[in-house]
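question for whoever is on the cluster today: can someone run the full assembly for these? two chains, 460 residues total. i dont have access anymore since they changed the login thing
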Amino acid sequence: MSLITITEVRKSFGQNEVLKGINLDVAAGEVIAIIGKSGSGKSTLLRCINGLETIDEGSIVVAGAQLAPDEVHLKALRLKVGMIFQGFNLFPHLTAGRNVMLSPMVVKKVSQKEAEAEARVRLEQVGLGHKFDAYPDQLSGGQQQRVAIARALAMKPLALLCDEITSALDPELVNEVLAVVKALAEEGMTLIMVTHEMRFAREVCDRVVFMHQGRVHEIGPPENVFADPQTPELKQFLGVA
Amino acid sequence: MMTFSTWDIVSNLLLAARWTVLLSLLAFVGGGAVGLVVLYARIGRKAWLRRAAGLYIELFQGTPLLMQLFLIFFGLPLMGLDVSPWAAAFVSLTLWTSAFLAEIWRGCVEAIPKGQWEASSSLAMSFVEQLRHVILPQSLRIAVPPTVGFSVQVVKGTALTSIIGFVELSKAATIITNATFEPFTVYGFAALIYFALCWPLSKSSQILERKLNVAHHHH
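^ ran it for u. tokens below:
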């Protein structure tokens, strides 16, 4: 059974239809890379899964939680699926530890003591146990992104959405973030990532989705998609045409 | 004819200035409280509430405070509500202040990057939880200087209440002038007292702005 079921999803911004009927099933533990040109709809699709964008038609279900625009449904959905952003979006007024503790305490009413213990475990997991009391502006981009991952993990989601999470990083900081993601994948976390890191996608992902003009244009295991692209659009995108 | 010493004039003005200070404080606190409610409506999820709050702000920003004072002082008695100058002054200054503060604060909330909303949304926080824990703590820092700066407008706004007969600094100055026939001296001192009240406020607004800009959020 699939953990995430995306059925015939359509989405327009004004006159511009960015998702033209997307179907995608993701099994628990699967690692999916979404690739494609900018404007192909890949980030929009990811944001829909988390309810940051509404959809016009179709449905998205994550482990029984259906995407709907009201706060109750959104909360149920977001408790199942977390998200990491390109721009980290840490809360600048809180320490790294407090960033991780906030949502469990506020949303799940976890006690401060428990939340702190959980936060220490999660920060340790991303290699930042010693930065518990550092503020975001005292951390490098790579460290901030790892805190953001710890923050999402502290909510114990079933799946994580990663929206170009290394695109804002200096090249030398990319690997420390990818290493954390890889470790998550190996532990069996369900991941959907929009990425430009083709090598990483090839190494880590179970399936690669190539999006083109609002549709899933090609989909398959990385060895097929990368080594044997079927369509001229994918060939061009990969630079093998 | 009676003569008045300078001290007579100044001491009486200072006594009346207490009412200016009290009215300013009350209007500022009341306006802040109402302003928070208006702010919540203005940035909230309900479209009709947003529009209603927008209209409220436009209305109070788009009409002179003096008209608002008159409408409350002369209008409410027409509806059978007897209002003292005190009450009329307090109510109109509170409403007026709330509209301006709500608009100032809306700007501060909107200055917070969209990513902060998205990150807290993705962590399953509700709108109120986002405001309370993520957005308002950050907007507060930006809001302090303009809010303190606006308090100067409130202090000066209280002068208008002299027209409906509320005895504060300006009204006292008029009364004293009528007795002493020394308008320049009396109004000069009154202006000095206003300045002494307002200048520290605008100065501290400037200092706060510099501090909150230079020093980081937490240090």
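summary bc i know u wont read the tokens: The two ends of chain B are 63 Å apart (CA to CA). The helical segments of chain B are 6-43, 47-61, 65-78, 85-110, 114-122, 127-157, 169-180, 183-214.
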